[in-house]
Amino acid sequence: MSAPRPGPPPGPPPRQWSGDGSEDAGHPAVDAAVRAIANAAALAPADQIAQYEAAYQTLRETLATIDQA
What residue spans carry the Pro residues bias annotation (predicted)? Predict the structure, then answer.
C-alpha cells in the first residue's frame, strides 16, 4: 500500500500567472519553468523527466543569480 499524498498547504492558493503583464510580479524564467512543469503533465512519463530536469535547472540558475545580487 502506498503512503497518502499530502494535501495542499494551508492558506490562500498560489497566484496564477496572468500572461498579460498587468500585475505580474514574477520572474520570467521562473514563470516559464512553472509553465513547462504544468505542460509536462500532458506528455508521456518518459518525456516528462526531461521537462522536469530542464525546469529544475532553470530554477537553480535563477536562484543562483538572485543570491549573487
Answer: 1-15
